[in-house]
Amino acid sequence: MAFTLYNTLGRELQAFTPIAEGKAGFYGCGPTVYDYAHIGNLRAYVVHDILARSLRCAGFEVTHVMNITDVGHLSGDNDEGDDKMVKSAGARGKSVLEIANFYTQAFFQDTSRLNIQRPDIVCKATEHIPDMIGLIRRIEERGFTYSAGGNLYFDTSRFPSYGELALLRLEDLKHGARVEVDGNKRNLTDFVLWFTKSKFENQALTWDSPWGRGYPGWHIECSAMSIKYLGEQFDIHAGGIDHIPIHHTNEIAQSEAATGKKPWVRYWLHNEFLILDKNKMSKSSGSFFTLQNLIDSGYEPLDYRYFLLGAHYRSQLQFSWDSLGGAKNARKTLLDRVKTLAGKAGVVPGPAGESHEAGAYLATFNKALEEDLSTPRALAELWGLLRDNSIKPAAALAAAFDMDRVLGLGLREAAAAALDRGPEDGELVREIEGLIAERGEAKKAKDFARADHIREALKKRGIMLEDGPAGTSWRRVEPL
Ligand code: AMP
Ligand code: ZN
Hints:
Layout: E1 4-7, E2 12-15, E3 23-28, H1 39-57, E4 61-68, H2 84-92, H3 96-113, E5 121-124, H4 129-141, E6 145-148, E7 151-154, H5 170-177, E8 191-195, E9 215-216, H6 219-230, E10 234-240, H7 244-259, E11 265-271, E12 274-276, E13 279-280, H8 291-296, H9 301-309, E14 317-318, H10 321-345, H11 359-370, H12 375-387, H13 393-407, H14 411-418, H15 426-444, H16 448-460, E15 463-468, E16 471-476
Helix pairs in contact: 2-3, 4-6, 4-7, 6-7, 9-10, 10-13, 10-14, 11-12, 11-13, 12-13, 15-16
This protein binds adenosine monophosphate and zinc ion (ZN).
The site of zinc ion has 4 residues, from loops.
């Protein structure tokens, strides 16, 4: 059946038809690495992970690209306020690059603890300045820019479909929907492509450009990097709903202005917010939690992942310790059930074990995800499967592991632990499973050097991979 997604562009469920058959190019806006991600931000990345995993399970060859914003993101998306990176570096007495490196690592530690698979391409804004300058030049050559007060602006009045994604009406904007502070702008919605001397004497990172030494506006990085890695037109772009009216609206305008091709992106996916006490969880409001806060309060990262999967990504989700506690208990019951089944089965079946007995559950599970990523319905199918005593334990487990390729709840590790493989460190197991998957991909792409490298690197760490008919398994050996 067709994979369907709710497209913000058009505000409807649409069958997913990629540009190249069988492939899916997907760009998800990544973090601004000036501080720890809060658990609201992490909701966005769990959603991206579910999307990429679901597409892969449905048979698409996915290229998932994510940026790291380490320059140019001001505290207001509309070119107002301070540069988040510069401010954070100043407050902590560090350089911008030190701050960026530290919080990038912290971000990937969080995402790996949440079992979020690393995107295929992770690209840093500061390493793509020439790409941004190149794209801005194209926009300029096509007559969409003007200079004022030392900045180069995008002239939104020259782009007739501006605001289509957000259903923006110029009239509404005029009546105060946005606070306007930059007198250089000719139109309320214009935005900066390149800053020079006009802002931030203390800007740490600057580059030479045709418009003077300076640095890029925030929006241009996503256009430049997604076009570089996915092409001038690609399939899916995702981010939180806060990005609809400004960031994504501006990305569309500048990309389509530069290339002259429309639509730049076919499907726009936006996750709703995680909210706390009726407000969006955000750093600026001062009320937010990090993943480490949850861990310090006795929760495992995957309890939070389970909590998130219980809600559809387009619904607001209220965070409370009570509901996180409910998720923790539910996940424990789930893992206990898996351990019991593993004990009965006596083996940990291969991950791709096709089972006729459990086929109906798997089919409904896949359908739930193919219908706009309905994780609540998918979870319900997993529960139904595990509670169904008419299915043999090994078959139920094999199907559950198939489901966990998307859900990522650590079911396989739980089963392995129950069979006395020793209390494996969950993170290590996930890392190994990730590397096994990566090795499989490398082999598929005939990159045997990479595949061998993964095997040898694991061997050095005392992990031996064994290929068999049911897939690749691993066991501990003496480290080399
Ligand atoms: P940032 O690092 O601020 O650029 O945000 C990273 C991602 O988190 C973006 O896709 C935002 O839209 C998203 N986001 C921010 N706050 C929340 C929230 N409370 N709930 C869900 N997503 C959020
Ligand atoms: Zn972006």
